[in-house]
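Worked Example 4.2. Consider the chain below.
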Amino acid sequence: MVKKGEPLNILYVGTLPPHPGGSAVSSSTVLIGLAALNHRIRAIAPMTAEALQEGDRFAASHPNIAVTRVLVPFFETTPNVPPAEEYRALERQRITEAFSALVARERPDVVFVGRETFGWYLPELAHVHRVPSVLRAAGGVTNGILQGTIPPRLAESLLQQLRLVHTVISPAHHLAHALRQLGCWNVTTIPNPVDLDLFFPTPRDDSLARSLAIRADEVVVAHASNLKAIKRPLDVVDSAVQALQRNPKLVYVIVGDGPPRKAMEDACREKRLMERFRFTGWVDYARMPAYINLADVMLMPSEAEGLARIYLETQACGRVLVASDIPAAREVVTDGETGLLFRVGDADDLAKKTLSAAGDLELRVRIGRNALERVKAHALPAALASYVEVFNRASRGQEPTALCLSPSGYGF
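Applying the procedure from the previous section yields the following structure tokens:
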């Protein structure tokens, strides 16, 4: 049993960079913070052969996290739609082998499962090895269950596994509520953190603007995501048709990549908007603050989210977030005060809100200032302390707590 205040021995199983998904960034942020607090961190994470050829830059950059890679044929990026059985079986086999070897070598105090997709087998595996587990449910699979894209058989299998873990960590209150409705009562809410030492307001990077052919008098409207269908990135293009008619000085910067990118580019060409769009592809996470600070307005038209990091990162940079009016956004945005909300899937309303922010510097300054104050509740140190508390309770066999970092002002 770990005594209070002693460093924990944590075995993480989940995604890590260069996996192109939010769970990799969110989990790695927590792991890096825990390692800096002198906790012992070992990690098992999938990697493709192609990515490994370039070297494991994450592991090399963080030698205090002992990373074991397992090879998979491709990075799985759509947790709301389960991959083929062959992929899941291969991933399970290779992670089980790595997990069993690491546990035999050195028993951890707690297993931290960093993504719901690993929840189909990791809780039972940890249980067999008599190690308590904690799982972070960011919402991809949960939304898939709620929307019916996860078959009922797989949904029930996952929920049975979640009941084996000591604590399920939800990054958002609305998501915790949904999990409880699905019969998962061992849920604790620790809202997503943001590293305020990395994300903070800075002037526009002139060299970055020049590289993207953006003039000083142009207003930058950005979208940053993995461009999955659930993010509704085509709504950005549809809204731009109207917005650019009224404000031709808008320039749209699309940061990220994914299957809908080609459809976005095709739509831009069809609608003769290509000269007003910049597609950057994937950007190293360390460069994201520069891209967010390049923007005057950040658009997030998702139809569902757990609690998107880009919400918080945009607010931490003092920029205006224009987000679809969904439960996740309402947890961090008070419309007109700390951001702007628009009707989901309504390109007309998105264009209207984009023009409102783009054409009113005073509004952008006021919202940016309010958002910057609001996002302090998501500072990384407080979240790390909450993670440590959950891990300690799990390692000591104590009952899960209704722990909740709950900034005031949530409107849902």
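Residues 85-105 form the longest helix (21 residues). The domain at 9-193+379-396 is CATH 3.40.50.2000 (Rossmann fold). Compare this with Example 4.1 before moving on.
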